[in-house]
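Can't attach files on this board, so I'm pasting raw text. These are the components:
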Amino acid sequence: MKRKKKASGLSKFRALLKYELLWNLRKRKFQAILLIVVLVQIITFIVPIVLSSITGQAIQQDPYKALSSPSGFFIFLFAIAIGMNSIPEEFEHGRAHILFSKPVSRSLIFLAKVVAALIILTIAYVILYLIGLGLSYAIYGPQEYIIFSPALILGILLSTILYLSMVFFLGAASKSSIITALGSFGIIIGLGITVGILGVFAGQAWMADYIPSQGQSGIIVDDKISIQTGTDALGVILSQFAINPNANVNVTYITGIQLGPTPTTITESLIMPIAQIAFRALGVVLAYTIPLMLGAWILFKRTEIKE
Amino acid sequence: MDIAIEAKGLSKSFGRIKAVDRLDLKVEVGTVHGFLGPNGAGKTTTIKLILGLLKPDSGSIQVLGFEGGGWKPDVRSRIGYMPELPKLPPFLKGRELLEIYGEIYGLSRMDRLNEAKRLLELVGLSDRANDRIGHYSKGMQQRLGLAQALIGDPDLVILDEPSLGLDPVGMVEVREIIRKIASEGRTVFLSSHLLNEVQQICSHATVINRGMKIIEDSISNLLEKLSKHREVIVELEKVSPDIIKAIRSLNFVEKVNWVGNRAEIFCSKLGDFRAHISRAISDAGGLIIGMRIEERSLEELFLELIKGES
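---
Top answer:
Structure tokens for the assembled complex are below.
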């Protein structure tokens, strides 16, 4: 039998990456979420203008405004939009039969899925950042430390990778888009509620810094810039850390609730170096991402096509 | 003779269900090998085991001389596969799909373009090359599924129900394509429930039921072996007791059915007995208007085999 020329790993990876990128970019779900996020980003800048015109108060200059978005639930939505179909749909729609019969290892297919998701997220975040930057200039005046914007985008990407790894893991384990999406929402909301209750009623507010969340609220002591301490805010944390690695943050922990006719929260304040907050958030992201991604990869590799 | 696929004692269960049960299979290089069996017989599971999409519980499998079947990407680089009712990515255009798969097989950009063009022409989709697959009809997706199985110049082409979902014209065209693939020296292994199709295009066949092999041979040998008896139809000018007696006295005659002046003679032995029958009828004073051997189709044999197994 005749021997064929062997394809290089790079050639196979390029082909798989193209397959994944075209899939994601042509997906209506992704296009819709990107559009919504862009609109929300624009609206968050327009609202202060509207309020200012109603109240007659001038909008204050904010040189850090461009380095403050996006974060929180948007990140999770992006991860869901990109990741929920990436693995399950191959099985649900029977496409894995052909893809897995091609001369390419499943590890390479998995890697292409992860890299494609990261490329798309990077493009989406750069677009969002540029929109935010333009609007910040127009509304909040000249922006400072734009040179540190890569730290912001890197941080947002890392925050998203955490959610993405969870979505990939659930996708590889369940092979169902619905279970992946609902499971991810369930875990995030469930964790948030559990840790919130433990924080308020058991004085364990510190736990919010160790789950995928916004964490605690704080203010950078010298610059009076608002900052969150959780993994969702890693973009802002890393950019502020890059601007001033020696900064301190006054972090407010809600440790209890005073019940009565007008319930009030009991808070505690703690001054923490921003370096500690940054490395902790980074550590938490890696602590979740590495085992979840490894688990997703192993499950994907071992999958049998039974249907 | 080189062996393209060889399975020995192959077994695979899903829970309590034994999908493939100690299956032995041998597909020779350069043949068009049909894989027959009723629904749920284990055909698709066997194909998935060959391709490495499933792991066997026990037994061994060799594909193109490599142990373990298609688990290794290097082995899969020499196999083209079209699943039953192929599900292709709807977000890609037909041409894009073939180009992407071509790149996986290491084709240069120019080769990819040429190969995509050639294959789209082969399956009659040139005019829809730049349409999204999601806009293709089932039949068109089936044709594209066949085209993608031929990317990378495979030595072995595995087709799972290649005619499923096609209209009669499409079926004929697909058969022509399969013949063309085979004429290029490739081994074709195809599962089909269309026995007529297998009889028309395959040189060899394996029949399985309940995950077990029932028989495996060349199509001509299968027909020969499985014909327990031949049926000879004789039209007579008129029937007389002497003629009836003369036919019954022939030692190879098992049974005779009379329908008017027509005799349906079932022979217990293989062979062409027309001369013997003709002489016996003439000697008894009869006049033969017409005589023919009623050939049994693979379908009848298949049904008989499956019935026997059940």
